[in-house]
Amino acid sequence: MEVPCVRVPRKEGEETRHRLAEEDLIDDDYEIDVEDVSLYIPVTDPEAVDDDLEIVARPVEERDDQVMPADLLEFDPSYERLGKAVLLDEDDPDRAEVIADAVLESDLPVETVVNKASKVKGETRVRDWELLAGEDTEVVHREYGCEFVLDLAEVYFSPRLATERHRVVEQVVAGEHAFDMFAGVGPFVVPFAKRGAEVVGVDVNPDAIEYLEENARRNGVADRVTAINGDVREVAADGEYEYADWADRIVMNLPHSADEFLESAVRLAGDECVLHYYDIQHEDDPFGPGERAIREAAGPEYDVTVETRHTVRSYAPHELNVCLDVRLER
């Protein structure tokens, strides 16, 4: 089977392997291969590999000796990976402990195991976690070449949305004014800035804003990022901030209630602005409610063109998480 690999001269192999390991990009399911003067290192996400490294598709051997949690259990456990943390969602505490033990005994590069102890709650959308292994709930996550530090117990973050975030990021061009109305720790803000945009991120959670500022520094884009702790409706209405008519691109990733903020989005939008509007709706009409709400909020001041109707994922039985990419033209 062909898999994406980084090809480097053998003399640079150890340095490159260490570099990819630091980025959490090595695909441990496959063996590193050697041929003539080249080393081939399998990677999980070729798009996140730095541009100075060569990517090739190559057949490599699967690893036979890697012990996974399922190898130590009588079942295949369900979990998410976030950096060097494993996230469980188990109602049975005894079963969670058994899975945590197997994760730590396996060959997964994991230091922390947590189990969900509550649903997402409150205005800041955080949840409670039970710490089963590790010192705390702070983790470092790498995504498409960006590094994010965050505390699971203090901020909201979903690794499942990485592909969707990247889809939007690829639309950004240098020099844009971009505004993330619910910025969190910066998974849209930071890569937007890395593409050369000037970005404002707002969030009601002060811990998220602290991490956003830290993540902007970590990724070398602090000079292009403004982080504001507050309700975005107040920021949009407050002349002190001077962001009315400012944005070329706006992200509204607050499914279930983004429609409550459309008036503010219209106030922030410049003469031409792309709006990324996230929603959760019944599968019978997943896009209609959002599109109608946008047209009502933006008209008659703006012409509204829906450029993309995109299904992000299944959210619940008969419910879909969707995104509308909408162009507003005054």
Automatic annotation (TrEMBL):
Keywords: Cytoplasm, Methyltransferase, S-adenosyl-L-methionine, Transferase, tRNA processing
PROSITE patterns documented for this protein: SAM_MT_TRM5_TYW2
Coiled-coil ranges from the UniProt annotation: none
Stretches assigned to the SAM-dependent methyltransferase TRM5/TYW2-type domain: 79-330
GO molecular-function terms, A-Z: tRNA methyltransferase activity
Cited Pfam families: TRM5-TYW2_MTfase, Trm5_N, TYW2_N_2
Any GO BP annotation: tRNA N1-guanine methylation
GO cellular component, one term: cytoplasm
Domain of life: Archaea
Protein name: SAM-dependent methyltransferase
